[in-house]
Amino acid sequence: MRRGPGRGASVLISGPAGAGKSHLARYFRECGLNAFDADDVPDLSHVVDLSGRRRTLTKDEWHRWEGLQWVWDAPRLRKLLSGKEGVYLFGHADNMYSFLPLFARCYYLRASPSLIRRRLNARKGNDFGKSEPQRRQVFRTLRPWELQARRAGFTVLDAALPPARIMALLHGPVRSARSARTKEPKYHASVRAREDAP
User: Fold this and answer.
1) Lower CB density within 10 Å: C or N end of the chain?
2) How many Å separate Cα 187 from the centre of its chain?
3) Secondary structure (3-state) at 117
4) Is residue 4 part of a domain?
């Protein structure tokens, strides 16, 4: 059985496209933790227009991404989080703030524009952020999204930190076939200082 953050203590880790959410979800799972990439959970995410009507997009509409929102389905999310162990959920949705009472802790991955640009250029599997309209949307919302997360009480983490360090901040060191190969450095004080920096 995969280990979660504790009974009824699910954790949300959000951030902009290119912050590394999918990569971190895979890393956590490879280390034996109960982690999910929200975009990969069947029937959890879908697109609506500004009136709330569910949409099936053409390729052109997907690449232009105008007047659209990415949202989570409430019953599907509650079912996902209902397990005894709780889960680490990595993802972002336009309606996620309405679900914050379902999470014991919430984190936001802060990333610089240069880091996001590199990661969007290199990403495979998910092509969001590849088109210019999508990319403009990502960079336009960087600051507002971070400010909204701070106001909602999210703990802000540096997305440039290695996955093992982020895991140790969220869960503590985990011994597994993968993590055992890397010696965990003493970094908590310096990381906290970086998190609190303006």
Assistant:
1) C
2) 22
3) helix
4) no
**What's the token pair of residue 70?**
């990415």
Instruction: Name the DSSP class of 158.
Output: E
- 173 in any annotated domain: yes
For residues 173 and 157, give the distance between their C-alpha atoms in angstroms, rounded to a whole number.
Answer: 17
- Each residue's pLDDT tens digit, 149-192: 999 999 999 999 999 999 999 986 555 434 333 333 333 333 33
- 164 and 179 Cβ atoms separated by less than 8 Å: yes
Strands (DSSP E) contained in the chain are 11-14, 35-37, 45-49, 54-55, 68-72, 88-90, 105-110, 155-158
Angle at 23 between CA 18 and CA 29, to 5 degrees: 155
Neighbouring CB atoms inside 10 A of 181's CB total 8
Q: How many domains does the chain have?
A: 1
